[in-house]
């Protein structure tokens, strides 16, 4: 069976999803993740005119993004990756947390122009890894889905059924980040 499959980008980080991703991908405890995020939020001297807060407030249960931040991300995506990677309408994500207050935005960089590459020499390694995780997830969340050509093969051998699945990337979409 052949078909096309879409893979949508994940929503920007909330406090709990950031802690989970940092644990899974970086091996950080929740306490360490939040201590590093606090430093990124309060500000770091990155040599561009003083101390700058690099991320928005990190204690949030919301996946909402301000229109200004979405517009900045759309311009960045269009310039760096091309218009094919940008959706016609900015994506809206629903918060899954029951009873979410949504008082703050999702965790995101204060400016997408401050790429992880541009801050590599300015940040300590652990801070840089967490910032790169946040930056990549935010930018990816504002991009088009990835498309795959998928092939499923069902094989019956006597009383046993086997399934093999393969896919080829047709359009990388958000995976380009």
What would you say this structure looks like, in words?
- The protein is an alpha+beta fold and 177 residues long.
- The protein has helices at 15-26, 30-42, 67-80, 116-119, 125-141; strands at 2-7, 44-45, 51-52, 146-157, 160-171.
- The strands form two sheets. A three-stranded antiparallel beta sheet has the order 1-4-5, with no helix packed on it.
- A hairpin with a 2-residue loop joins strand 4 (146-157) and strand 5.
- Helix 1 crosses helix 5 (125-141) and helix 2 packs across helix 5.
- The chain starts with a strand and ends in a 6-residue tail after the last strand.
- 27% of the residues are buried.
- The model has no long low-confidence stretch (mean pLDDT 92).
Task: Give the topology, please.
Elements: E1 2-7, H1 15-26, H2 30-42, E2 44-45, E3 51-52, H3 67-80, H4 116-119, H5 125-141, E4 146-157, E5 160-171
Helix pairs in contact: 1-5, 2-5
Q: What is the mean predicted local confidence, pLDDT? A: 92
Please state the overall shape, judged from the principal axes of the Cα atoms. Answer: globular
Number of strands: 5
Portion in helices: 25-40%
Topology as H/E string? EHHEEHHHEE
What is the SS-derived class?
alpha+beta
Radius of gyration: 19 Å
Task: Provide a count of the helices.
Answer: 5
Q: Largest beta sheet, briefly?
A: 3 strands, antiparallel
Uncertain ranges: none
Strand content: 15-25%
Q: Give the termini distance in whole angstroms.
A: 30 Å
Strand order of the largest sheet: 1-4-5
């Amino acid at each position: 069976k052949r078909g096309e499959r879409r893979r949508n980008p994940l929503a920007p980080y909330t406090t709990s999803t950031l802690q989970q991703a940092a644990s899974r991908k970086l091996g950080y405890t929740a306490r360490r993740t939040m201590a590093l995020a606090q430093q990124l939020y309060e500000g770091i001297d990155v040599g561009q005119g003083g101390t700058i807060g690099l991320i928005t407030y990190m204690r949030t249960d919301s996946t909402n993004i301000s229109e200004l931040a979405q517009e900045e991300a759309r311009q960045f995506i269009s310039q760096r990756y091309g218009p094919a990677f940008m959706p016609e309408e900015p994506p809206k994500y629903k918060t899954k947390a029951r009873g979410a207050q949504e008082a703050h935005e999702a965790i995101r960089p204060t400016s997408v122009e401050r790429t992880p590459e541009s801050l590599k020499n300015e940040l300590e390694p652990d801070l840089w890894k967490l910032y790169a995780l946040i930056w990549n997830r935010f930018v990816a969340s504002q991009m088009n889905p990835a498309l795959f050509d998928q092939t499923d093969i069902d094989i019956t051998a006597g009383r046993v059924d086997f399934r093999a699945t393969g896919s080829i990337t047709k359009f990388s979409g958000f995976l380009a980040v």
